Structure formats: C-alpha cells, structure tokens
Amino acid sequence: MSQPRFVVLGASGAGLKAAARARRLLPAADITVIDERELISFGSCGLPYYLSGEVQRLDALRETGWGAVRDADFFRTLQGLNVLTGLRIVAIDRDAKAVTVEHASDGSERTMLMYDKLVYALGAAPRVPAGCELGPCIMAATSPEAVRDLRYDLERRAVSSCIVVGGGIAGLEFTAALTDLWGCEATLVEATDRLLPAYLDPDMSRLVESALERRGVRVRTRLAVTAAETANGLAVVSTRGEQFVADRAALATGIRRRTRLAQAAGLAVGELGGLIVDANLRTSDPDILAVGDCIELVDHTSGEICCLALGSLSARQGRVAGDVLAGRDTTFPAVVGSVAVRILDQDVAATGLSETAALAAGLDPLVAWGCFGDRTQFHPERRLIYLKLVYEAETDRLLGLQAIGPGEVVKRVDVFAALLRQDADLADLLDTEFCYSPPFNAPSDPLQDLAAAVLNARETGLRQVSPFGQLDGRLVVDVRGRAEFAAGAPPSLPGAVNLPLEELRGRMGELPAGRPLLLVCAKGPRSFEAARILQHHGFHDLVYLAGGVEMRAGDRRSLTN
Amino acid sequence: MSQPRFVVLGASGAGLKAAARARRLLPAADITVIDERELISFGSCGLPYYLSGEVQRLDALRETGWGAVRDADFFRTLQGLNVLTGLRIVAIDRDAKAVTVEHASDGSERTMLMYDKLVYALGAAPRVPAGCELGPCIMAATSPEAVRDLRYDLERRAVSSCIVVGGGIAGLEFTAALTDLWGCEATLVEATDRLLPAYLDPDMSRLVESALERRGVRVRTRLAVTAAETANGLAVVSTRGEQFVADRAALATGIRRRTRLAQAAGLAVGELGGLIVDANLRTSDPDILAVGDCIELVDHTSGEICCLALGSLSARQGRVAGDVLAGRDTTFPAVVGSVAVRILDQDVAATGLSETAALAAGLDPLVAWGCFGDRTQFHPERRLIYLKLVYEAETDRLLGLQAIGPGEVVKRVDVFAALLRQDADLADLLDTEFCYSPPFNAPSDPLQDLAAAVLNARETGLRQVSPFGQLDGRLVVDVRGRAEFAAGAPPSLPGAVNLPLEELRGRMGELPAGRPLLLVCAKGPRSFEAARILQHHGFHDLVYLAGGVEMRAGDRRSLTN
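Above: the input entities. Below: the structure tokens describing the complete assembly.
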C-alpha cells in the first residue's frame, strides 16, 4: 500500500504541529512542510521580551527547552519531517492535487509537489496601512530582523524615542518593552477610541491607558495614521489631526491573513476574510485543511464567526489537523478566546465577550465592576485587581470577564474561561472551588465576591454606578474611616462628605432628606453596606460606586472630573 | 407578624457569614451569634504567616481590608447582629427550640435562648493525641496565644529548635514558618507513611519531603507519637521507635469536630463522625442547619462521603445557610476539594482524588506524571512544576491533579477543579483555553501537554514508568545532549549510557538487540520521542521515564537508588 503524501504550507507553530502529529500517527507517511522563510518555528510572541532585554539572545525564541534550535534540520532529524525552506508557493492546483513552488530568492526551479492532503497554514503577515512605508526609521513591530536592529540601537543609545502605531496586544507589548528597561520616550497612537479594542470595553481600557501614562508613555487614541515615513533620519507619523516625530516608528497595525493563494485556488473565504473551515478544520475542499491565524472560528459565547490570532488556539488546531490527516474525527470546538498581556507593572487578561462585543452580537448584557485584593487582606504579597464581569440579563449566564491589575488576574480569567465553555451562570460561579491559602487567595475568590455582589444588589434593588462615570448632582457620601478619608489615598470624589460606616446608624439624620445619594468607599463593599442600611431606614434614591475610589483612581482622568 | 429568631452557634467564618447573609435578606430578623471565645472571626489560617514574620501584628488576622477589627462590636454595629461572646453553650433543647448558655468564665447566669432556626457552626478544635499534654513547651500549632508566645520567644532567640507533630497542611505551614525566617531547627514527625496524606500520593509527597529536607528540616514519617510532654524546660516527644527533644513541640495532629452538643441533642452523625446534612445544609432536624468543619460533605468525583475542613468551602456554606434561613432553596453542591500550601520555595496544590483515594473509592484510576516549565522556555521567570494526573481507565474522565513546584501550580489546579466539576475527560482538557503570553504560560498549557502525552503514549503502546520507581535491570539510555549528560544536572540514572536524541537514528545499531530499554531525558518528551523512533525500527521492550531526571531529582532519595 502506498503511503499518503501530506504537504503543509507554512512552517509556523500550527503547521509544524499538524505535521508532527500526523507523523506520530502515521510513521510511514510522506510529509513535507514548505516555508518561504529560513527562520521557521520562530516564537514571535517572544520578540517584545527580546526587545526589553529580558530575553538575551534572539535565537532563544526558536530553541527548545533543552537548547536545540528548531530549524529545518531539527524537524528532519527528530520528527522525520521533510522541511523545505526558502521556497515560495506559487499556486495550489486542486484538480491535480499539486502545489507549485519556486526558490524564493530568484524564482528558479519551479517544481510541483503532489499531495493527498494539504494543510494550509500560512498564517498572517503584518498589515502595513495605506500611506505607511517601511524604511530605515519605520519598522514592523513584529519583524524579528527589525526588532534585533532596534535593540542594538537602543543598547548603543542611538534611539531614545519611538512612536508605536496600534494599541492592540503587539503594540502594547512593544511599548512596554521600550519603556521598561530602556526608558525610551514612547508615544502610542491608536485609531479607535481605546487600547485593546478587541478585548476591552472603553472603561477598562482607560485603566490600561492610565497604567501606561503613569510610566510616561504618551497615549493618543482616535487618531488614524495617514502616513508614516522616514524623513531626515527621523520617523514622521502623520494623522488627520497631529504629526509625530521620533527616532523610530513601529507599526503594530494588525495582521493581514495570507489567504491569497487559497482564494486563487477557489477555497471559500468568510465575511471576516478568513478561510472557512468545518469542525474538522477542513476548508471547502475536503482534501485541504487550514489551521492558524488565517481561518475563521466560531465564538462559543455568542455563536458568531470570529477571527482570533492566538498561539494557544493555533497549537490546538495543529494537533486536531494532524489527527484529521490520519483519518480521525477529531474536532476543533468553538472558542472563548482568552488573552493576556503584561504591561509594565500591570497584567491585563480577558475572556469571552466584552460588553461592547455582547451588544454587537445582539445579546442583552449586564455588567458589574469590582476592585479586590488578590489574596487575604493580611498577606504582604496582596495586590489589587480590577474586574469587569459581563453576564446575560435574562439568564445570568456568564458572557465575559476583563481583569487588570498588579495582582493575579490570569488565574481568574483561565478559570472563568472554563466556566464559559460550560455555559455557567452567576450561581455556578459561587459554587466554583478555588484553592485557598493566604499566599494564593482569600477564602472567597474575587470572582465569587463579585458574583455575590451582583446578586446582593439585585435582591435589595440597589444600583451600582460605574467607577468611571460622570457625577450627576447626587450628594456624594464617602463612608470610609475619617483617617482614610483625610489621607485621600485615593482621593474621594469632588464635594464628598465623610460619614464613616461605623457612625452611619447614629448620624444618618444629618443627611438631607430627599436628596439623591451616591455612596462611595475604597473598593465597594462598605458603600453597598451603607446603602443597604440607609435603604432600610427609608432612604430610597441611593446608588453606590462599584469598585470604589480605588478603581476610579485606576483611571487618571476620572480623578479630575 | 413577628420576626423570625435565628441563633447561630459559633462566631467562625461560616457562622458569621450565615448570620450576615440572613440579615441582608431579612432586615428585621432577630439574629444572635454565640461564641465561647472572645477572639472571634479570627483568620487562623494566617497564623503561620504571623509566626514567620510576614504578618507583623496578630490583630491583622482579624481585621477587614480597611483596618477595622472584626470583634463583637463590629458585627453589632455594621451588620446588626447580636454577637454574644464568652458564653458557653450547655445544651440544645430541640423540643423547646432553645439553647441553654452560661458564662464561660464561671458558669454563672445560665439562660435560655429561643430559636426558630438554629445554625450549628462550632467547627472543630485541635486534636491532642493520647499521651500528649499541652504545657510550657508543648503547644497546639493552631492556638493564636501559643503562636504569639512562640514568635516572641523566636524573636528573642529563646527558642532555636522545634518538633512539629503532624504532616498535614497546618504542620507543614508551621514547619515552613519556623524554617524560613527564623532558621529554627525543625523536626517534622508524621504518623502515616507520608506528608499531606489526605491530598497527595506517596510519590508526590516525597517531593514535598525533599523540599523540606533541602532546607534542613528533618522529616520522619511512619512515626506515631505516643507522648509529648515538658521535661526540664524542654519538649520531649516520644514515638514507638524514637524520642525527640527540642525547645518546643507543636501539635498539628488534626482536628476534633465539635459535634458533642449536636449529638447530645440527637442530631444524626455520619460514619466519618461529622454531622449529616442535606443539600440545603439541614441536619436531621430541619430547623437546625450546620455549616463549617463539623459537617460531612459529598465528594463530587467519587460520590462518597468526605470531611474537608477548608475555609473556601465554609465561606460558601455560610452564604447557602443564610439563604436557607431566609426561606430560599439554595443548595451546597458536592465538592472536589481544592487545597494549596506554600512550603518554603515550593507551592503544593491538589484537587479531586489522588490515586490512593481513587483506589479506595473503588474506581479504576490510571496516572501520568510530568515535569514542565510553567511558561515559555525563553521567559526568565520560567520555573518548573511537577504534575501527577489521575484519570479513569475506561472513560478517560479526569479524577484528580497533584501539582508541586517553584512554578505556578495553583492556577492549573483551579482550572482543573472547574473541569472536574463538569466531569470532563482528557479530550476536554485538550480543548480548554488558557491565556497565552510568555510571562504567563506556553502556547499549550502543561496540563494539555500532559494530557496529550497520555494519549500519545496510548496510541503507540509505549509505557511510561514512574519517575520515582526502582530500576529493574533495563538498560538506561539517556537521550539528552552530550553536554547536558556530562554536566549531570540533574544526574542521570545509575549505569545510564548517553545516546543523544539527535544521533539516535544514526546510532541505534549500537544498542543491544533484545535488551529491555528504559529511555530517559530531562523532562520526558525527548525520551518518548526516542522510544517512538526505536519502536518504529523494531525495538519493542521499551519504556520511558515520565517527568524525566528532573522530576526524579525532585525526590532526593531517588538519586541514590
């Protein structure tokens, strides 16, 4: 019996994983992996850590845990994969079941490779916006070569300012890397109204913005870049409103899915521009699978189509595709889309739908904010975390979580993602078990405290207001202790009167009858408690500040409004 | 309409939570909480961190996040709870629906408190084994007063050695606290064959033992203490085999559930000695609820009865009981039982069933071990974690996880616990989504790598062997690189020959035909890969070392056998 021939286009993580998995299942299969680049299996997610200096050598990003370099030879020797680099793919002929390639360097030696099954794993390339031109001072933030050159220039102090275009994950990591060790003067320019627009709502995004600004980064949103070019040895970035000049500019303006060859071969492309695949990752041609950043996925929570270029998902897709190549019926499920990014002294993580995304998907979301310590109040390693929970109005079904802070947020998001996948609701969150010991958590996890706060507020009819909202003429009653209030760390809201919770029962007569009240405290629980007490004593137009002045203070701008 | 009268016995976390929750739902209810102690709502889980010096003041353990002391007055003023301390509970009269109390100090003023509903939350007291007597040099490890005195003595260098009796969580935390800052010479004596016997299998427990021994702690297992007494100003601890003498001895010999009063009142007690409750936490008397350490629970994974004294569960039970007091049908579900403990430079966490527990429950468990970095191989904060996965043979259903290491283990255990609660299997684990970014994880989480390793091994028929097992005459082939092997960090197994994976295809002829082989590498993946290659070339009696020499080296004793 002749062995099947598999050809994988793209020696990225997902493509190589599919090939390696197929090799395990079918030891005698003929498996070829083709890539235009010489630098394959490169952990480009590690580039910001090379730029920052946390990772010393660029080659470390393509080494295994035991120090072997993952080059073509590595995959040939260890996994028996025929990895061919430096080959440009010219066309896919689905009728002949063949791929035409040529030498990338000079277009020579055009050859055809026959396949029984093809895996399309060409991923995506950096998107360069119209008007922008890569050049001596304008780089792609995700280019290994350009990052290597920039680090060299930073080390020899030849670069001291940089404009980063694009406030997605790549742009933020790049900005953080410039700022942290090198003290490079960074300007971050984003076209939409906020940073991380794909994952965060405008309110939580402001916390990220403030975290950058506190470290000296200049953040400019709502500025679409119209041109970026090298002029007189400097980078000049133009927008409709403003022009920026710096030693360098780095473009982190998203990705362009490399679907051209697939489209030319007539494979179906979806409304978001990605390849359409079924649950087995088969394209519209059942002999061609597709994996990685170039495919469209299904969002578990909304049921809608989405595109998510995440390494965690690509790795899993590679294994599924390998199974399918070997004739198994393994499926790749709908995704919740968990992401995390470290931005200087803050970690940011999110999963599921933001409020914005839930509304766009036609759902009816409700939200709650909270500020918590990430472990028991007495543990010295305790740090704050800010949470925004999104859930469905009618069913209490969990829809999404956004988490930011110097404290441990990724753990909460990972657990929440597992709950999302099982369509859990607020009550399920209360029943979730977290390891408790003082160095790791409080007896009740912040997620549970937040879910309980939502349910408590609903029972009492009390209403939270956003920690970032505008004041609306209510009398602000700050129920923190006298010393806390006086210290003003964080400061209270403008015009606040101080009436400590401990004294509230005795002094509530001092509050003007009939005046709408906004109760505030440090993180939220005391103001809720105060509202409950006042409600029980006949006050009725009451709201309390979710997340308290601590969360409000996380957003610099809210301090002055 | 007259308001309901609720009496809560025990001002512990669970009891106070039940009272506070009932108060929220029924603002006018008459709620009384009774405790014999003056020191209520005390975070005794924080005692080891006070002992170690990480927490400065003992009072910090009963303060809120904003510095208020949670004493009787606090609960009275803020939550409108009638908290009575210093009262001994004499008896519960279920017919009269009354509790008789008297002053704890002198037995005076015997009074009866009428209730409509009673919450039994007396928790547990430290168990003092037969032959042991608390005294000047013999303390209970969980006594706030004794810990305060010991810290004082440590600070003034009046104590330099201590025997800790009991290798459960409390004993380990106590031992770690003595060792870390104070450099106190510690001996840990445990009656069973291993540390943390309720949560860890013997093999994983050896990693904990080694972690303590590396820091100078003397660990002695299988030694039941027959006597502990003060003699000539020293603590003398006797076992059947050995006697230990030190400045102090601390008993961490488990708990005694305080069910005496409940039993005297005729409430049903289960086979494990805890109060039997239904899903609403009602005892055999529907007007009496019970919460906290004195009740029996249902283990979700095995379906068996269990007793788990965990603050995380008590907190949840308190809220459920408050709901039920207020007439709601809230239920407390079966538990998976997640625990974590920090032991010097290692974190230990576990959830679900150990292999031992699964066997005891009549299940048919299979296991897998693995050693992983907790984030991408190039990230400077990368640390090792050691995992043991327990799953069901026939169904692949996840049963439990044990995790140890200097790396991030709690996150993995928390996510695994969420999967356990949904009866997930190995394939579901592969589909779980974890946030990926270099500071937090690898593209594929260690749990997923471990699940994949199990499935890969099964497909090929290759068998892992325990990293801690005895060698059995196989030829050991170490497939690490030459430099790694020569450096011997960690050392290879006795008699190992070095044949680097990269050279295996070319040099496999050097291996003796027909000789059973044990393939080893640093963490496991390379030896599996090598076994697969050899298998494909006709070798058949092959096993590989799960977790590799790294995991084996985690257990000091395995290095010499």
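Note for the figure: The radius of gyration of chain B is 27 Å.
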